[in-house]
Amino acid sequence: MLVDYHVHALGHAHREHSLEELIPFLDVALKRNLQEIGFADHDRYLDSLNFNLYKELQELYPKINIRVGLEIDYYPGKLEEIKKIRTSHPFDYVIGSVHYIDEWMFDADKEKQRFEEWDIDELYTRYLSLVIEAANTGLFPLIGHLDLLKIFGNRPKKSIAETFNPYLRDLEKTGVVIELNTNGWYKPINELYPAPELLELCFQANLPITLSSDAHHAEQVGRDVDKALAIAKKAGYTKIATFGNGKVNYINV
Ligand SMILES: [Zn+2]
Ligand SMILES: [Zn+2]
User: Fold this and answer.
1) Residue 23: CB partners within 8 Å, gap ≥ 6?
2) Ranges of the chain whose pLDDT falls below 70
3) Fewer beta carbons below 10 Å: N end or C end of the chain?
4) Nearest CA to 13 among 58, 56, 43?
5) What does the alpha-carbon distance between residue 42 and residue 155 come to, in Å, rounded to a whole number?
6) How far is the CA of 177 from the centre of ligand 2 (A)?
7) Tell me, what CATH number does 190's domain have?
8) Containing domain of residue 127, as a range?
9) How far is the CA of 147 from the centre of ligand 1 (A)?
10) What per-residue confidence (pLDDT) applies to 223?
């Protein structure tokens, strides 16, 4: 079973939220044999979303389950705002993503020189602490792109195991699901988030997974999720998580 829970209908406000703009996303989802598609736009565009469109879209595409989520930026101090966002609509799920370290949007191309200001291992510690903090809020059933910090090729000096293992058990305790986000293959790092080596550690730590493309354009919907699933199976996974009505289910793959 193939799914994609991380689709940005609006991209980075590239387009209007309309049925006409959404239809190509569903056509691609069907072409790539997805059984579920989850729309999760960035929370900063919340006011531009018309959730009624998804009901209309579901009627037009009865063969695929359409889920509605949101990708919420996590940073300390935003908790009250996040709670408000979370309850502003009966979302099927939301994604908690760390894109910021303090005011620095570290995954933005124009800000990438700021990596030089850091000891990379310290930066990984700082980043992973924020990921754990996000997971511990209990507000996010799904955590976005676990090793996003590598986007421009900045890997830790320590091994992957040394860097991530201290956090994976804590993450498991929170009950969050990790996404296999195929967009990493289209970034300078050219690697799945999380890296296959990290995914094996996630499996050992008993962390559940799901599949996502992080599509910002229709043609990217479900891109390479089959390839990601094959890597997950190789790591030992036999189930993926699905999200609906605020609940998480696990299905055999
Ligand atoms: Zn993201
Ligand atoms: Zn995203």
Assistant:
1) 57, 60
2) none
3) N
4) 43
5) 26
6) 15
7) 3.20.20.140
8) 2-252
9) 11
10) 98
Phi, psi of 118 (to 5 degrees): -115, 150
* pLDDT score, position 97: 98
Structural domain count, the chain: 1
Cα–Cα nearest to 4, from 21, 19, 20, 26: 26
Cα-to-centroid distance, 8 and ligand 2 (Å): 7
What is the CA(217)–ligand 1 centre distance, in A? 14
d(CA 19, CA 84): 27
| Cis geometry, peptide bond prior to residue 194 (ω within 30 degrees of 0) | yes
Q: Which residue has the tokens 């209007």?
A: 16
Query: In 14-107, which residue ranges form alpha helices assigned H by DSSP?
Result: 19-31, 52-60, 79-86
At residue 231, the pLDDT reads: 98
> Which residues have CB under 8 Å from 16's CB, separation 6+?
none
Distance 239 CA to ligand 1 centre (A): 23
Tell me the C-alpha distance between 176 and 134, whole Å: 10
Rounded Cα gap, residues 207 and 171, in angstroms: 8
Residue 81 Cα to ligand 1 midpoint, Å, equals: 18
* CA 251 centroid distance within chain: 19
